[in-house]
Design a protein that fits this description.
361 residues, alpha/beta, Aspartate Aminotransferase, domain 2, Aspartate Aminotransferase, domain 1, 2 domains, seven-stranded mixed sheet, 9 helices, 16% strand
């Protein structure tokens, strides 16, 4: 019996393009003429070296990554980068941070082990319902880097304007933002992103680093966290998450076929507008984020009644709209509408919300 696929609004691991899943299914037993699955082949084989090379080349093309930036595939997800970044970049043992959400706070907490963390601003007091205002006079010109989380998956906020750090490299967590819209890699010293939002399944983090920032890590840095060593080993210091990188390659192929990041951005803007426009006129559902900080990937909202919210999640699931509960810490409701979520899925959600509101006046 073949089950009908649901519309999956999970924040991660998240929905993947059906086209990609079908290609992976067709190649599961035998990848091209290799006689084996990608999961079975040596990471040192010619077939796999072509896969990982194509994945990196796709990212370089889609994101217009300059030649003086290196692309790494690292294990441990974005969370491992909360340690790897200060280990590699904290030469002066201090960095500036913006506390805009739960994951930003985690990055700050872990960086404190390695040096001084200057928290320039925080929106924690208002339950991370906005990107906090920044006071440039608080920026440290001697900071090793300036860290932000571009899109806050849990809270549903995002940066729309980058600060002028006067030459201090901006390090950015793009886990739930990368490939969703066009940006200039040159604005950042280092970009890192877990794959399980817009690039593939969980198991790998992409790191895009300006080459002058590599090579001066702390002596205690484990080799697996050392950017220069990972680059020199071709992201194969140990066995990489081969199948995850293979799916990432397929996803980036799909993004290219869709017209690239610029075209994906137009679709994402349409989806977000559909959902936010409904929330703005609804009497039952209310967006929880300030309008000038709204995420295009993670839409968070509330009903003001926990029992009603639980019933909404249950009835939505029965209707084929799943994973609409908010983060366990934040509560409320959340719809993650990443690249692979079709416009039809958002339309179905809005229609269901209208029906639910009518029935629960």
């Amino acid at each position: 019996m073949v089950m009908k696929r649901v519309y999956n609004f999970s924040a991660g691991p998240s929905v993947l393009p059906e086209e990609v899943l079908k290609i992976a299914a067709d190649e599961m037993l035998c990848y091209q003429d290799s006689g084996m699955s990608v999961m079975e082949m040596s990471h040192r084989s010619k077939a796999y070296e072509e896969i990982i090379g194509a994945a990196a080349a796709n990212l370089r093309t889609l994101l217009n990554v300059p030649d003086n930036y290196k692309i790494l595939f690292m294990q441990g997800g974005a969370t491992a980068q909360f340690d790897a970044v200060p280990l590699n970049l904290m030469k002066n043992k201090k960095a500036d941070f913006v506390d805009s959400g739960i994951w930003a706070a985690k990055a700050i907490k872990l960086a404190k082990k390695y040096g001084q963390t200057n928290v320039l601003a925080s929106s924690k007091d208002t339950a991370y319902d906005r990107i906090p205002e920044l006071d440039p006079s608080k920026f440290d010109p001697e900071a090793d880097y300036f860290h932000i989380t571009m899109n806050n998956t849990v809270a549903g906020t995002r940066f729309y304007k980058l600060p002028d750090t006067k030459g201090v490299p901006i390090v950015v967590d793009m886990s739930s933002y990368i490939l969703s819209e066009v940006f200039d890699v040159n604005d950042f010293g280092l970009i890192y992103a877990g794959a399980q939002k817009n690039m593939g399944p969980a198991g790998v983090a992409v790191v895009i680093i300006r080459e002058d920032l590599m090579g001066e890590c702390m002596p205690v840095t484990p080799e697996l966290y050392n950017y220069k060593i990972n680059y020199e080993s071709g992201s194969m210091l140990n066995t990489p998450p081969t199948y995850t990188i293979y799916i990432l390659k397929l996803v980036t192929d799909w993004v290219a076929r869709m017209g690239g990041v610029a075209q994906i951005q137009k679709i994402n803007e349409k989806k977000a507008a559909m959902l936010y426009d409904y929330l703005d006129q609804s009497n039952l559902f209310k967006g929880r984020v300030a309008k000038d900080s709204r995420s295009m990937m993670n839409v968070t909202f509330v009903m003001g009644n926990e029992e009603l919210e639980k019933r909404f999640v249950a009835e939505a699931k029965a209707a084929g709209l799943v994973n609409l509960g908010g983060h366990r810490i934040m509560g409320g409701l959340r719809a993650s509408i990443y690249n692979a979520m079709p416009v039809e899925g958002v339309a179905a959600l809005v229609d269901f919300m209208k029906k639910f509101e009518k029935e629960n006046k």
